[in-house]
Every structure is written in C-alpha cells, then in structure tokens.
Amino acid sequence: MMRRPLLVVLLILNLIVLLGQVWPAGAPPFARSVNIVFLIGVMAYLIDQMRSAARSR
To answer: Rounded to the nearest 5 degrees, what angle is found at the Cα of 16, between the Cα atoms of 5 and 39?
Structure first.
C-alpha cells in the first residue's frame, strides 16, 4: 500500500516543522512552505483514514 511511504514523508516534514519550533534560528528559508505542505498532507491522510473507517463499517 501507499500508506508507509506517505507516513515516512509526513514524519520527515514533521521533524522539519518541529525543528523550526524548537530552534527558530535554524529553520530553513522554506519552512513556511514545509509547514503548509505538512498540514495539508496530514489533513488529507486523516480524511482518507476516516473514509476508510466509514467504508469498513
């Protein structure tokens, strides 16, 4: 399935977002874009999971 690679990408993006929160001076210049991509990715993943759970009922 596609879930494992997607989770790895989301985990890496999460680490970059966390690094920017813990050490703002070390945040890369593209941190804002990473934050937006991470939030959209997590939202899409959660919606997919909710749809899968609703279908399996």
So the answer is: 70
Q: What is the pLDDT along the chain (57 residues), one digit of tens a residue?
A: 567 888 888 888 888 888 888 888 877 788 888 888 888 989 998 899 899 988 887
- Sign of the dihedral through C-alpha 27, 32, 37, 39: positive
pTM comes to 0.69
Q: Rounded to an integer, what distance in angstroms lies between the CA atom of residue 55 and that of residue 40? A: 23
Spatial distance between the Cα atoms of 49 and 13, rounded to a whole number of angstroms: 19
